[in-house]
Amino acid sequence: MSKLKEIYRQRQLHWMVLPGVAFMIVFNYIPIYGIIIAFKNYTVIDTISSAPWVGLENFRIILHDSFFWEAVGNTLAISMMKLGLGFAIPIILAIMIFEMRDGKLKKFIQTVSYIPHFFSWIVLGGMMISWLSTNGFINQVLMSLGMMDKGVNHLLDPDKYWWIAVLSDLWKEVGWGTILYLAGMSRIDPTFYEAARIDGATKLTQIRTITLPLLTPIISLNLILNVSGILGSNLDQTLVLMNSQNQNKSEVINSFVYKMGLTQGDFSYATAVGLGIAIISVILLVITDRVTRKLNNGNSVIL
């Protein structure tokens, strides 16, 4: 009864939350029913219920599909490179910004680093295509430094694509990734740093013994989210930067599913791939959570 009274007392807040809950039910939970087409031979002339069952046949086809495994290899390579650079650099940048004493310069650097996040990959991808073209900005800089004799189209070289994808994604998201860390650092009690300075601790020692330990829950949460999404490479970026010359290095799981489902109309196969990736992502989420518990005195930041 007391719980009902508490809910009634906060009824205005519950009414505010209701549209969001309804949105999630309609667009996130009800569509889960469609997962069953992964076990059916579904076509556009069928309904989900009338399509014939094929059991695990779609998954058997996936295991023997060389194009799928090529996409898996590209996804893992790009995601691991993004994880290696994109996880650590926002932490370093956030600490550098936090330690700045010039308020105006700090705000300027924050604003400049945030801006790319607000541009879509259609805009940034067009810029990348122009910069990396034969007569583009990148070639002009490299030739002026004597590092190249003549310009080349870098996006047509498959061996360069992974680095192009990683560095362009880092450029777009690194500033935005500092927000949580800066918010966490702003809540650290300044007396901790004052006591450390009195004891003779250097700035690096203060960062190592105060800042990083107190940021551990946020770092752990970001690590969990990054690892669990390691099989979900950026679809927008891929569709913009991919071309017929670099496709063997740029095709990722998301773009593969997109092509199989919407382009070729093989909805059952695409759903089976998506379901398998979702299950693996949940497993990675749980494993990473168990590992990060050790960084948080046995406490989970999500469960």
TrEMBL record:
Bilayer topology annotation: Multi-pass membrane protein
InterPro entries attached to this UniProt entry: MetI-like, MetI-like_sf, UgpAE/MalFG_permease
Record's GO cellular component terms: plasma membrane
Intracellular or extracellular location(s): Cell membrane
UniProt cross-references to SUPFAM superfamilies, sorted A to Z: MetI-like (SSF161098)
Residue intervals passing through the bilayer: 12-39, 76-98, 118-141, 161-183, 212-232, 267-287
Family (UniProt): Belongs to the binding-protein-dependent transport system permease family.
PANTHER family in UniProt: BLL4140 PROTEIN (PTHR43227:SF11)
Name of the protein: ABC transmembrane type-1 domain-containing protein
